[in-house]
Design goal:
Largest sheet: 2 strands, antiparallel
Strand content: 5-15%
Number of strands: 2
Structural class: mainly alpha
Helix content: 40-55%
Strand order of the largest sheet: 1-2
Number of helices: 6
Radius of gyration: 18 Å
Order of helices and strands: HHHEEHHH
Distance between the termini: 22 Å
Length: 217
C-alpha cells in the first residue's frame, strides 16, 4: 500500500506502489497551466488504475477510483478508498482524541521494548504486551476499527472484503501523521504534532493537491 504523500492520500504525481515507476505528472505539464496539468494527471491515473486494479468486464469507473460495492456483490476492482477513509475518520475526531492517539503512537515508538511480541497469522496481528503498551495499542486500535467501518459501511467502494484492511491501516498511519506534521508546519501552526491541523475538504481536488505536492519538492 503506497504511503501518504499529502494529508489526503498517496502521491498524485506518480504511482506510489513499490516497484511501479508509472508517472502521472511530467515537469513540463505545468507549463500548460494548472488545470491542464491536473487533467493530465486525471487521465494518466485513471488509465493506470483501470489497467492495474480494474477487473475486466466489471470495472466501470471513468476516474480510475473504485466503483461502489454493495454487499454481497463482488467488487469490480482490487483497490479501495483506504487513504481517504483514514482522513475522513481523523477529521471527525475531537482535538483531545487526536492528541490521545498521537501520544499513544509516540509512546509506542519510544518504548519499542514494551511490545514483547507480534504474532502474525492469517486473520490479524495479535499484540502481546505490557499493560501500559496495551493501553496505547488500544487507543490506536479503536481508530483502526473506525476506519474499517468507514471503508466498508460508509464509503463501500472497491475491495471492501480484504482480510488485511486493519494491517494496511496500521501500516499507513505513520505516513499519515507525518503528512499532518508537514501540513502543520506549512500552515504556520504552533502545534506541529498534526493534532491541531484541520483538513479543508475544498483542498481535496486534483489541481489543489497537485500544487500542494509540488510545493513539497
Amino acid at each position: 500500500m503506497p504511503p501518504f504523500a499529502t494529508r489526503f492520500g498517496a502521491s498524485l504525481l506518480a504511482c506510489g506502489f513499490p516497484g511501479c515507476n508509472t508517472k502521472f505528472y511530467f515537469p513540463d505539464d505545468i507549463d500548460k497551466g494548472v488545470e491542464a496539468a491536473a487533467e493530465g494527471i486525471r487521465t494518466r491515473r485513471a488509465k493506470h488504475f483501470a489497467d492495474v486494479f480494474g477487473i475486466p468486464g466489471m470495472f466501470q469507473s471513468q476516474t480510475g477510483l473504485p466503483d461502489p460495492t454493495l454487499a454481497p456483490k463482488a467488487p469490480s476492482s482490487y483497490h479501495n478508498t483506504l487513504h481517504i477513509s483514514i482522513a475522513r475518520v481523523w477529521s471527525r475526531l475531537s482535538l483531545e482524541k487526536k492528541q490521545a492517539i498521537l501520544r499513544a503512537a509516540q509512546e509506542a515508538e519510544k518504548n519499542v521494548g514494551a511490545v514483547e511480541e507480534f504474532i502474525v497469522d492469517k486473520r490479524a496481528i495479535i499484540y502481546r504486551c505490557t499493560e501500559e503498551a496495551e493501553k496505547n495499542v488500544g487507543v490506536i486500535e479503536e481508530f483502526v476499527v473506525d476506519v474499517r467501518i468507514e471503508l466498508c459501511a460508509g464509503s463501500h467502494r472497491g475491495n471492501i472484503y480484504s482480510a488485511t484492511i486493519d494491517e494496511e491501516v496500521r501500516a499507513l498511519l505513520p505516513s499519515f501523521w507525518q503528512a499532518l506534521r508537514v501540513a502543520s508546519k506549512k500552515a504556520g501552526l504552533e502545534d506541529r504534532s498534526g493534532a491541531a491541523f484541520v483538513l479543508n475538504w475544498m483542498d481535496n481536488k486534483v489541481d489543489r493537491k497537485m500544487v500542494y505536492e509540488l510545493s513539497l519538492r
